[in-house]
Structure formats: C-alpha cells, structure tokens
Amino acid sequence: MQKRLNKEVVSKLNELGMEIYGQLERGEFPRIKLPGRTTSNIVFDEELNQFILGDQKAVRSASNIKQIRSLTQLLWVASFAKRLVSEGKSSTLRDLYYHSLNYGIKFREQMESDDTVTDLEALMTEPREAFNIFPKERSAIFGDLSIEYTTPETHKGRRANLGSNPDGVMVGLSVAQADFLSCNANKVFVIEKNAVFRRFIEERVYDKFNALLIDTAGQAPRLARLLIRRLSLELGLPVYLLTDADPWGMHIAMVIIRGSANAAHLRELTTSTARWVGLWATDIKRFSLPSFPLTKLDEQRIRLLEADMRYRDFEWQSELQEFKKTKRRTELESFSAHGLTAIVEKYLPKKLKMIADMS
Amino acid sequence: MSGEKFKAISAADFFYKNKEIAGFDNPVRATYTIMRELVENALDACEQYSILPEVRVKLIDEGNSIYKLKVEDNGIGVPYEQVPYAFAQILFGSKYTLRQSRGIFGLGGKMAILYGQITAHSTVRVTSSTGGFEKYSYELNINIQENRPVIRRKEVGPNPGRWRGTTVQFSFEGDYVRAKPKVVEYFKQTSILLPYANILFVDPDGVLYRFDRVTDVMPKPAEEVQPHPHGIDVEGVQRMINASRSSTMLDFMANNFHRVGVATALNFLKSIKIDPQANPKTLQSRELLTVVSRMKEYDEFQPPDAQCLSPIGMELLKAGIMREFRPEFVAVTQRGASAYSGYPFIVEAAIAYGGEIPITPPDEMSVFRYANKIPLLYDLHSDVAMKVIKKINWQRYRLDLSTMPIAFFIHICATKVPYKTVGKEYIADRPEVEYEIEWALKTCAREVKMHLTRKEKASIVQRRLTVFEKYLPLISRFATELAGAQNQPNVEKVLKRLQIHAKEVEQRSSLQAE
After folding, report:
1. DSSP state, A280?
2. Closest residue of B to A10, CA-based?
C-alpha cells in the first residue's frame, strides 16, 4: 500500500515539474495556481464536519518580483520531497530548513520553510507525511496492539506489540504507517498529559478498561491524529478524549474530532466519532475538584471559541457557558486530591456511562 | 605728490607696528600667510595675462625656526626698472581702477617680504624676465622708516631660453610643522579652482605635492573698470579729482565712473544742485561730502556690470572638483552678476555627491569657500555661506547632510570681496550676497536631487533584474529535477523579456526626471 502511495506522490511532483519545465521552454514566466490559504478561504464543511479550503486560488508567478522567491522555495521543497520519497528517506521540518541553506534559497526563519511545506501540501493535496517530512515526535501509545512495520526498509516485516514497553512506544512514522495485525483492546483513551498517561499504565487501565492508551503531550501531532483515525476506522474502536478542563484542553479534543484551521487543506486526519469525556467545566462541581480562576487569556480564548463554527453544537456551547459562569478551570491531575486511584476508579466509569447514556 | 609720499612712509611703518592685522600674528599663522600671499601673486601674474600657470613652491628648513621660501612662476614678469618698487616698497595703488584679482594692491606679498626682513634679517632675491633677451636679478631690502627700496645687488644676464616669469626667494621665521595642515589644505583647495594650473610644492620634509593641469581652458581675465559711483568714498573721489585733468564736474563724472555717461552725469549733478561746469579741484570739502553721499543714494545710475569679473565658469569648476574628489555626481551653477554697494559680484557654486567625498558630522561639513579664487580656510562658522547652508531646508531636496557624502563649493568673485576682517578669512552676510548664494545652492541641490531620483529608479530596476537573474536559474534547475528531465531549460528567453522591460522603465523615468 505504501509503495503505491509513494508512486502516486512522485508522479504528482513530476507533473508539477513538467508544467514549470514546459513554461520555461516556451519562454513563459513559470506560474502555478495554489488554493488560497487565507482565513477568508477557510470554510467549514458540514458533510466532512471539518474545515476545508474554499475555491479561491492564488497565482504564484515568476514574473512578480514579490512572488518569485516563494515560488522558487516551493519548487525547491517539491524537489526535496521528491528526492525523499523516491529514495525512501525521511526528514523533519527543522532538517528541511537546514537543508535549504545548501541551495541558495534563503528562508528567513524556520517558520517560512514550514509555511512553504504547507503550501506544497495544499498544492498537492497531500499531507507532508506523504512527502516523508515529519514534525518532531512527542506522542506515545501503550496497549495490546500487534503491528507489522511497513517502513523504513530496514524494519519492513518486523513485528511488535505495543504493550511491551511500560513507558509507551513513540508514535513516529513507522508506528503510524504500520499494518495492524491483532488488537485485544476494545477502546482507545487519548490523554493530554504524560503524567496521567503514566498513572493509567501504573493503574492498569489498559487491563481494567480493555483500552489502548495514547499520550498526545498537548496538542496532538499529525501522526498521532493519523493513528487515532486509523484505529477508529480500521479497527472500529471507540475513541475517548481526556483533557484539562480549560479552553485549551477542550480545543485539543476538538482538533482531534474536527481538525484544525491550519490543516484545512488536508482531509483524512480527523476522527469525527471520537468523544470528549472530560474534564468538562461542569465536572469541577460534579466531582468537587480543586480549581483555579481563569486568566485573562483563558477568557479571551473562550470568547474566540464561542464564535467558532466547530463549537456550535449544544454540548460544547454549554461547556463554554459554564466556564464563563464559574470562571474556574482545573487539570486532569486534580483528581489526585481524592487519592491516587480516584480518576480511574470513580471518574472514568461514571463518565463512560454518561457518554453511553447520551448517545 | 607730497601727500602720497607721506602715506607711503606711514604704510611700511604702520604694518611693521601692526603685523597681526594682516595675518602675521604668530609664526604658524605667518608661515601660512606668507606662502599664500606669494602663491597668489604668482597666480595673478599668469592669469591676468591668460598664461596657463606653472607655479613651483619650495620651502626649506634652515634651522632655528628659519625657513627659506622660493616661489617661481611663468607669469608676465616684472619689467627691469620696476622690480625694486614692486617688491620693496609698500604703497597704495596709484591707479584708481578696479578689477577682480586676488589682492588689490599687491600689499600682502610685500608684507611677507617685510616680515622676513624683520624676523630673519633676510633680503629678498628676485629674478625676473618679461621674455626678452635678458633676465635680471635683484637683492633687495626695505628701508622701513622711509618706505624705500634698498638695492643690495643687481645683476643682468643673457636669457638664452627666452624664459619669462618671476622667482622670489627670501627667508622668514616660521613654524611649518604646525602650519603644515593648513598649508597643504590651501594648495589642495586652490588647485580645485584652478584645473588649468600646474602647481608643485616641495615641503621641508622633501614631500612633493603635485597638482597637474587637466584642461588648457582658462577663464577670460578680468578687465579693469572705473569705480561705480555707489561704491566710492570721499577719499577715493578726492584722489580721483587730484589725478584728473578734467576742469568741469560734468567732464569729471562722465570720464571717471563706471557706467556714468554725460546724460547720467548731467541728471545727477542737476538733482544735487551742483553746477556741471564747476571745477572739481576747487570744490569745497563740504560740497565734496554732499556729492559723495548723494552719489550713494542716487538710484538712476546703471548697475555695475560684470566685465570686470573673472568667474571660473561651470566647466572649469566641475573639472577641478572632478580631479580632486572624483565624485559620483556634481551639480554646478553660476548666478548672473549682481552688486552690493556699487561693487559687482558673481556667485558660483557646486554640490558634489559621492565618490571620494567623505560623510561628515554636521558640525564639520565639507564646505569649500573661495573669494576671487582664494580658498578661505578659517572661520567657516562665521561665514555667510554657512549661514545659508544652515538656513536651507535640505529635506526638500531629499538630502541629509549628516548621512550623505556631500560637499559644497562656493566661489564669490567681486571687485571688492566683502570680507568681515582684514585677514581675508570669511565673508560678511551682505543680504545681496546671501541671496545669491542661497539660490545658487538651491539650484545645485535640485540637480542633485534629480540625480539621486534617477539613480534610485535605475537601481530599483537593476535590483529587480538581479532578483530575477538569481531565481530563474534555480527554478529551472528544480523544475528539471522534478520533471526528471536531462537538460535544464534555458532561462535566457525569459530574462531577455525582463531586460527589455527594464530598459523601457529606465527611459521612462529619465524622461520624467527631465
């Protein structure tokens, strides 16, 4: 499957090259049309239940002094991607930025090269992972799932069980793209905090709840989102999201469910069936958790989310209203106030039941 | 003329007792002044007769603060019998005419010789020839009390090469070490205004300073003119009357004043109720006073004209500046003739930009001032030019004096330069002079602004082209890699389209600028 995908990506990049090549041969200024990535071109798609790019196109032409540099950069990133994919190598955004220094195309800072990679994603309608360009990995998975590696070449065909390492296994390209052999879990817990992830392993949550555990370490990286989506689609596992009770934690859950505006040009990263089980704003009262006042920044963020299309559902809106009313927030660790095992023994069963009742 | 003789005697004595007023107050200043006066006399001897100047100056350290100066020129030469008077008698001019020259009465040179005699007990050796069959050498002293030349030695010899010119040599007490910066600056600035002169200076350390001629063109020499009635005083008129053969006021007025003819003289005399037939020599001193004071007020006289002036001209000024600074751009302008109190004057100015012109802090601006081709090296901040420079709003011309390499050149030529002091150091702020300088500089500034605008437009176009030249080959290379093709497409076709476009833009902008 991977092989087929690689061929497809290479041929797409090839096409782009042929087009520019032809323009130059005819003595024309090279130009390409990109889907516009400005906020005015990001629309919410009801059917896909995520943000997508609208129909606006932006021309990037070598005849325009302001665009020739970014066009050159884009073409360099494309040629770099082609080399990665066809040689079966991988790179990170940071690595790509440093590579660029060898080619006389100066990116002012990494943000600029990152942005150019995003342009290429939009132009090719492929995630950067398809070009073997990955962000820094920091998410991990633990649980009884057996996989067979498909990449890199050196590990192809090797097998592993993700419950074998009590620290969890890092979710990198190889794990995210591995074939699933067998899985004895029947649900997935996605946790925002590494401390709580470890607590869950220690408390044998994987056993008690028959679950796979994923630690996103904050906002979920793309590979983690890709893996969550695959677990949901390919294995049909229900996904439960656990975050802090504040606007930031809430949004971590939302991005996994409905995607981010930043990745509006990409599909196939979201898991629309995933459920946010907490912590909710209302959980603070429900479980009498210790809490802290919201900061100014928190309140600004809440106002922003209120107007966000992704938050228009009643359950999300009512949580936002609760934050506004109580002006309090709390973290997953606050359960420790009720003892080490409270979150596992009291909270989780109760919340899972609530979710089941709701649907 | 006993009156004149009395004055002549007091002249040598007067200067002996008041050395400082003519710039001889200390050995440093004296060194500079002496060299300047002799070089100026040498240049005048050439220029007034349209001879391309060749001036050689040598200063030798003889120990004990005594220096020997030798100045040689290829000028018109001094006639045999006049040499003693020309170099060893301090006298006021006996001619009552005016024209532009560096010094009016040749006073400075004689002061320098007098100073040498006082401080170093030196005689002056003069060798000269007007280009005839013989040349002659004199060794002279000045009899200070009687203001009379004393001939120590005299020698006449054959002149086989028909050499023409003058060599002056004498010693004086000075301080070259400390005067050196000013002296060198003097030569440098002098040469800027004289691109047609060869000037050579060997200093006591044996260092050779050489300023070579870059053009054979010389400005037309100044013509002598009679004084304008607006610019004369009672003493002057009295002397003119004494020297005149006229027996009527009408005749006297019509023959001795610049731009005054019979009709004008008649109208003037009528308006002040003086009998045109009256004999000027019998005029009462009260009447004389009336005549002079009414002359200054009477505004029916024609303004003085500028034939008596010898401005250097735009081409030469430009050539001189180019030789010294190789600027990127120089704007030159020459104003029409104007006059203050009956003295005609012309202002010439230039603003040079870039090249070897340094960027200077605001209080050390590069301002080169000249009066009758003499560089003015002292008291810049009291000079009218500085006042004008401070007054002009340079931002209007998109010039920033503190960050841009800019130099100003201002030359005033006049039959009488309005110096503020005797030492010829800076120009007084006469409103007429100020006005002319201001407009001269503004005219130049406008040109510099236009140049900078043109340059900016051209450089934008060029910079754009550079960007394209940098990125198009890269695009071609990456496209080739992406397409998996063997050969890179040629970007020349696309670049050519850009170059044509760039040329069009440049032409359009230069048309606009004009």
Report:
1. -
2. B482
In chain B, the residue whose alpha carbon lies closest to the alpha carbon of A72 is B475
Interface of A with B in 105-134 (CB under 8 A): 105
CA of A4, closest CA in chain B: separation in Å? 19
Q: Is the pLDDT of residue B422 over 70?
A: no
CA-based nearest residue in chain A for residue B484: A14
- Whole-Å CA distances, A312 to A39, A52, A315: 19, 17, 9
Give the domains, in start order, of chain A with CATH numbers: 2-134 (1.10.10.10), 140-358 (3.40.1360.10)
Name residue B224's amino acid. E
pLDDT in tens, A142-158: 999 999 998 778 888 89
Size of interface A-B (CB pairs under 8 A): 81
Element (H, E) at B295: helix B285-297
CA distance A346 to A326: 24
B468 contacts A21? CB cut-off 8 A: no
Distance in Å, alpha carbon of A347 to nearest chain B alpha carbon: 55
| CB of B468 less than 8 A from some CB of A | yes
Is residue B371 within 8 Å of residue B311, measured between CB atoms?
no
ipTM of this model?
Answer: 0.71
Residue B466 sits at the chain A interface (C-beta within 8 Å): no
What are the distances in angstroms from CA B250 to CA A61, B240, B258, B297? 87, 14, 14, 19
Confidence grade of residue A269 (pLDDT, cut at 50, 70, 90):
confident
- Residues of A annotated as catalytic are 98
The three-point CA angle A125-A129-A130 to 5° equals: 55
| Strands (E) located in B206-328 | 208-211
Which residue, among B456, B494, B441, has the nearest Cα to B472 in the 3D structure? B494
From the CB of residue A206, how many other CB atoms can be counted at a distance below 10 Å? 20
Residues 6+ apart with CB under 8 A from A320: A247, A281, A302, A305, A306, A311
Nearest to B197 by CA among B189, B208, B205: B189
The per-residue DSSP string of B247-265 comes to -SHHHHHHHHSTT--HHHH
Residues from chain A that touch B478, judged by Cβ atoms under 8 A, are 17, 20, 72, 75-76, 78-79
Task: Tell me which of B470, B481, B482 to substitute to probe the interface with A (most A C-beta atoms closer than 10 Å).
Answer: B482
The residue of chain A nearest to residue B481, with distances taken between CA atoms, is A79
Those residues with Cβ within 8 angstroms of residue A93's Cβ, 6 or more apart along the chain or in another chain: A110, A113, A114, A117, A128, A133, A134, A135, A136
pLDDT in tens, A110-143: 889 888 998 998 898 888 888 888 777 789 999 9
Span B210-221, average pLDDT:
90
Q: Are A227 and A183 in contact (CB under 8 A)?
A: no
A10 touches chain B (CB under 8 A): no
B123 touches B170 (CB < 8 A): yes
Burial (Cβ within 10 Å: 0-12, 13-18, ≥19) of residue A83: middle
Closest CA to B307 of B97, B26, B85, B21: B97
A152: preceding bond cis by omega (within 30 degrees): yes
Q: Band of the pLDDT at B93, cuts 50, 70, 90? A: very low
The single residue listed with the structure tokens 């506004």 is A324
Q: Are B15 and B117 in contact (CB under 8 A)?
A: no
A24/B475 touch (CB, cutoff 8 Å), yes or no = yes
pTM for the predicted model, two decimal places: 0.59
Q: What is the mean pLDDT of chain B?
A: 86
**Token pair recorded at residue B1:** 């003329």
Residues with Cβ within 8 Å of residue B401, at least 6 apart in sequence: B360, B362, B365, B389, B394
Selected for mutation to probe chain B from A11, A61, A68 (highest B CB count within 10 Å) is: A68
- Residue length of chain A: 359
